[in-house]
Sequence to fold (212 residues):
Amino acid sequence: MAIATNPVGAGLTASLGRPGGNVTGLANLDAELSGKRLEMLKAAVPALSRVAILWNAANPAHKPALGDTESTAHALGVRLQPVEARNLSELSDAFSAMRQERPGGLVLLADSLFSTHQARILDFAAKSRLPSIFWQSGFAEAGALMSYGTSYPDLFRGAANYVDKILKGAKPADLPVEQPTKFELVINLKTAKALGLTIPQSLLVRADQVIE
Fold:
């Protein structure tokens, strides 16, 4: 595994410390970071009161992540609007629901469906003037307001280390699943300007990359 989300919950490993089977590698913690992303978006747009969260019910990691994000929203005094999409057709329906509800921001849970349709989602966010935060830096580089999450290049390099160990005779069952320690915050000031937003300096100094 290079970018597994919740490998224990998904049934891939018995535990993180002792996988116990033929699967090991790295977990990306994307689901666990969803509440933190909401915090970051609220810090960027302090006036936020309603935020849509796009999730996929077919992804086993999303339900607990949604619950964690709802707890964070409650603590921040933000109303969370869950919007579900399991395929392209439902993604279009999700856009319609958000147009009707008119949230002030958008958080996305990490999912391959949303990666595949990145351009559609970013186009919707831009046309709807929605400040958005994604889980990977490529989204901010492509036009999202922000991204916060695990460094995927670091995960891929780490996966190569596991391959090396296994080829040299190590048993996957005995190799603990590694969790990331490096997280990247990327802020796109071009998008902020287009949205008429001024990002607080206190957040800018925390960013690993600022796109101007």
